[in-house]
Amino acid sequence: MVTNAPAAGSIVSPSSGQIDVRWLGLIDYREAWRFQKRLVEERVGGEAPDTLLLVEHPAVLTLGRQADESHVRATPGELAGNGIELIRVERGGEVTFHGPGQLVAYPIVMLSERGILLRSFVRVLEGALADTCRALGVEAERRDGHPGCWVDAAGARPRKIGALGLRIERGVSYHGVALNVTVDLAGFALIDPCGMPDVESTSIARELGATTGARPALTVERAGTLFADAFAERLARAH
């Protein structure tokens, strides 16, 4: 069960306090969603520290609370035939695809206690995504007006490598970011990523010119470790 999942370790920063980092591996989206909600309640009640959940999900589509369902290209029958559920959740943002080979990071952080505004927290997450890509050999960055992380952001062919969608309740964040590591990019043909019909999705493996089998060191768990380090460092400096 998720609720009994062991912590993968903790990152401690003198200025930010403890962040409990948990690698949960491949886990059903709804199960991880329920776990996030439980952790939010515990964090609000002072029963849990700030926590970063690192996971992969089986193939699933999620819609933000105000997302336009017309950006789902696949028909209900096509989704059902492939065993892919479409779930509307509380986060911001448009439709997103999750699948194996994609790192999903859920930060349950008491922003009000740390004195961090939402805009600054978004920059922390986008910066940590870019840091992770860079550590794995891919140059990426934020793109003005388009949340997430992009390759060739200001160039002729910007490609989205990381998505972002958050929810803040009672000063605590949840939902979070997704980074395409070795994920099958065919899944993004089911949607208009970010609600943008012409956006091109990419992955670390694709940008490196690699296949999943060709780079055994390129794993979601390794990307998760790098992201956790970058996130904790940037969070400690945020204000």
Summarize the SSE layout with pairings:
Layout: E1 9-13, E2 17-26, H1 29-44, E3 50-56, E4 60-63, H2 76-81, E5 85-88, E6 96-98, E7 102-108, H3 111-114, H4 118-135, E8 141-143, E9 146-151, E10 159-169, E11 172-180, E12 200-201, H5 204-207, H6 220-237
Parallel strand pairs: 2-3, 4-5, 10-12
Antiparallel strand pairs: 1-2, 3-7, 4-6, 7-11, 8-9, 9-10, 10-11
What features would you describe in this structure?
It is a single chain. The chain starts with 8 loop residues before the first strand and ends with a helix. The longest helix has 18 residues, at 118-135. Residues 1-8 and 12-16 have low confidence and may be disordered. The chain has one domain: Bira Bifunctional Protein, Domain 2 (BirA Bifunctional Protein, domain 2). Strands 1, 2, 3, 7, 8, 9, 10, 11 and 12 form a nine-stranded mixed beta sheet that branches. The chain has helices at 29-44, 76-81, 111-114, 118-135, 204-207, 220-237, and strands at 9-13, 17-26, 50-56, 60-63, 85-88, 96-98, 102-108, 141-143, 146-151, 159-169, 172-180, 200-201. A hairpin with a 2-residue loop joins strand 8 and strand 9. Helix content is 28%, strand content 30%. It is of the alpha+beta class and 239 residues long. It is built from six helices and twelve strands.
